[in-house]
Design a protein that fits this description.
By secondary structure, the chain is of the alpha/beta class. About 35% of the residues lie in helices and about 20% in strands.
């Protein structure tokens, strides 16, 4: 199958979750033998270089730093490529241009809205109904899309994927009991976890915080003031291997962030065998992962969180949970292919 992805700005331009998702899907499809090209604004050097191959995906230039030229050039670039399907991010200026490109090529248009794209008020009404299928990562984002005017029957949830086999390549960190992972920004809400730990200071535990950001010093100071600073390690924004070692070694993963369009780190931790404790937040989809999962607790306050940590001690310690293979890359990429096949 020949798939044209449309992402005006890629992860080379900036670290946006929506761009990461689309490029992961492109790599997964290319790894399965499909012909994949990402049509984007140029991010590599050389004005005469029309495309750049970042194995196994080709990036093809439509513009060089110009939204207007991207909007004008994309329909003709897509028609000339002759794809079987067009898969676009909804951020301006690309969705309207992708729509006309798909029309010229006479192929279906899929839009993949992670929920963090800077769409402003332009992704509502007729615009949000243009794609033949709108894909979102969670029920939370599905609801927000429908509130903007999306057709619920043409909007599907395709979750984020993890590399399940990678779990076996990392040894568990035996020094971790409890782990938290999220950028330490305005959405982190790490204070709830620290307050719960302070209630349990008389018990034996060691906690690890994965993530960095502008509020790190504030949270480190809070841990010291709560007299638990020597039992909470702040690892910073470490790589996937280090994260998996912590998750495989930990007994409990705690999720308190106020904003999670898809709780990817929670998913990795559950696959590593952690008991999941999720504090319900209106702007987070994390509770969706554990609604029907027996090795989990849902809480609404630091006191309930502390109780859940104690109760989690009654559950078996594991370093791998096979049921989460339902979110492995092979399974998730097949969901994307099913969407394409139905449209074709």
């Amino acid at each position: 199958m020949r798939v044209a992805f449309v992402s005006f700005r890629t992860t080379q331009h900036g670290d946006a979750s929506g761009a990461r998702r689309v490029e992961r899907v492109a790599r997964m499809l290319a790894g399965r033998g499909h012909e994949v090209t990402v049509f984007c604004d140029q991010w590599w050097g050389g004005e005469m270089v029309q495309s750049f191959v970042d194995d196994p995906v080709e990036y093809r230039r439509v513009s060089i730093g110009g939204r207007w030229s991207f909007r004008v050039g994309l329909p003709f670039a897509l028609a000339g490529y002759r794809p079987d399907i067009v898969h676009a991010r909804p951020s301006p200026p690309q969705l309207g241009a992708a729509h006309w490109g798909a029309r010229l090529a006479r192929v279906p248009l899929v839009a993949d809205w992670f929920g963090d794209e800077q769409t402003g008020d332009g992704f509502t009404g007729t615009s949000i109904q243009r794609p033949d299928r709108l894909l979102v990562p969670s029920q939370l984002v599905w609801t927000r899309a429908c509130e903007r005017g999306a057709d619920g029957d043409r909007t599907e949830i395709v979750p984020e994927a993890i590399e399940f086999e990678r779990l076996e390549t990392v040894d568990p960190d035996s020094d971790v009991d409890l782990v938290y992972a999220h950028p330490l920004d305005e959405h982190a809400n790490l204070g709830q976890f620290l307050l719960a730990l302070a209630e349990l200071r008389s018990r034996g535990w060691h906690a690890t915080v994965v993530g960095d950001g502008p509020r790190r010093e504030e949270y480190e100071q809070m841990a010291r003031e709560l007299q638990i600073g020597d039992r909470v390690d702040f690892l910073g924004a470490c790589d996937r291997g280090r994260r998996l070692a912590a998750y495989r070694g930990a007994h409990v993963f705690v999720q308190t962030a106020t904003r999670e369009l898809f709780a990817t780190e929670l998913l990795w931790a559950l696959a590593c065998g952690c008991v999941g404790i999720v504090e319900y937040q209106a702007g987070s989809s994390a509770h969706e992962l554990v609604e029907n999962y027996p090795r989990s607790f849902r809480v609404t306050s630091p006191a309930e969180l502390a109780d859940a940590i104690v109760d989690a001690g009654d559950l078996e310690k594991m370093d791998r949970e096979a049921s989460w293979q339902s979110h492995d890359t092979d399974t998730v990429v097949e969901q994307y292919l099913d969407v394409y096949r139905k449209l074709l």
